[in-house]
Amino acid sequence: MRYARSEMLFGDDFKKLQDAKILLLGVGGVGSVCLDCLVRTGITDITIVDCDTYDETNQNRQMWSELHLGESKVEALKKHYPTVTAIHVKVDKEWIDSIDFDQYDLVLDAIDDIHAKLYLAQKTYKKLISAVGSAKRLDPTKIEVSTIWKTHGDRFGAKIRYELKKRKFSKNYTVIFSSEPAIVKEKGSFMGVTGAFGLTMCSQAVMRLTGKK
How far apart are CA 121 and CA 112, in angstroms? Predict the structure, then answer.
């Protein structure tokens, strides 16, 4: 049985995973690994949203990218994870306003656009798990989980805090970040870190759904 080992680990809580409904925004280096982890764990009702297509530069970190150059990421991933709902659209304020978030148990944010991340946080903080700053780093052991107000060592996280304060937003929500200083200025990336971010996001989602956190 495909999920026998998951059932051994989670026991009666496994049904909570099977019944969960997840919204995953962004399926790049972090999001695609998170998706793979969620499905392998037994969570299959997942809506994935991304507007990008695969290009050659994605192949160092994004799941299945080498097989689908030029294709929509969400449509390509649906071929490998047929139970997902794929939405090929840019996550922006207008799209966020169009969504009924009440239908989802969790919202997983693996997008890069700061404006969308800020608006999403204000709308969904109670059920949000957000990733910041996975690029430009080498050491996955520096990954931490905290609230947005306690991130450190990450300029992107600091920028988000600054912008949220400007908007007089003071609520807490879960953030995955790295305390490792960026080692390059360019958008260099390493799957050892981006993938670990995705696995951490999956783990946080599973613990939240099963009441372990």
Answer: 13
Neighbouring residues of 98: CB distance < 8 A, sequence distance ≥ 6 = none
Residue 36's domain comprises: 4-209
CATH code for position 188: 3.40.50.720
Which pLDDT tens digit goes with each residue over 144-200?
999 999 999 999 999 999 999 999 999 999 999 999 999 998 889 999 999 999 999
Residue with tokens 């981006």: 194
Alpha helices (H) in the chain, listed in sequence order: 4-10, 14-19, 31-41, 73-80, 93-98, 114-124, 155-166, 191-209
Mean pLDDT of 17-28: 98
Residue 1's alpha-carbon distances to 5, 17, 18, 210, in angstroms, are 9, 16, 15, 21
Residue 213 pLDDT > 80, yes or no? no
End-to-end CA distance of the chain: 28
Number of domains in the chain: 1
